[in-house]
């Protein structure tokens, strides 16, 4: 196995671990995956958050307010250049809100987010997240007017 292939596989594993930690709601595991400083995150619809404290607080807030979340990653592309790696992917997200008053599961909602995750090789040789940027994908819904409806 070449070094480039091994690095690509290690980066893809680190990327998968990032999403797995969020799915489990495991903030400690998530924190271990990020570099110690100079990190940033852009969650869909949020401003840029920088610094470890702000980034970890944002994930804690998301986890505290999401009873269920699952990511199905598609279109995953990994590029490694030296000690930096870029992963682009589509997050096909299924999430659920708080349980209903009767104890039944809350409503499930689906969404699409295009994400870019930047990794840096850490001193121990492992790959750590440097930056995550997620942008929502707007999907034309059936309730939205067609161009013909607008023009007509």
TrEMBL record:
InterPro entries: NTF2-like_dom_sf, SnoaL-like
Name of protein: Nuclear transport factor 2 family protein
Residue span(s) of domain SnoaL-like: 11-137
Gene3D superfamilies, per the entry: 3.10.450.50
Source species of the chain: Streptomyces gossypii
Domain of life: Bacteria
């Amino acid at each position: 196995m070449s070094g480039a292939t091994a690095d690509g596989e290690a980066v893809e594993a680190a990327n998968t671990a990032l999403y797995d930690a969020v799915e489990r709601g495991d903030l400690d595991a998530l924190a271990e995956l990020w570099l110690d400083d100079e990190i940033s995150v852009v969650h869909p619809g949020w401003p840029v958050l920088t610094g470890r404290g702000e980034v970890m607080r944002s994930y804690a807030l998301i986890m505290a307010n999401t009873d269920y979340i699952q990511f199905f990653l598609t279109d995953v592309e990994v590029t490694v250049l030296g000690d930096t790696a870029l992963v682009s992917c589509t997050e096909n997200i299924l999430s659920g809100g708080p349980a209903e008053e009767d104890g039944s599961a809350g409503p499930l909602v689906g969404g699409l987010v295009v994400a870019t995750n930047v990794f840096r090789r850490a001193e121990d040789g492992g790959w750590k997240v440097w930056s995550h940027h997620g942008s929502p994908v707007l999907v034309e819904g059936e309730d939205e007017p067609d161009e013909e409806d607008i023009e007509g």
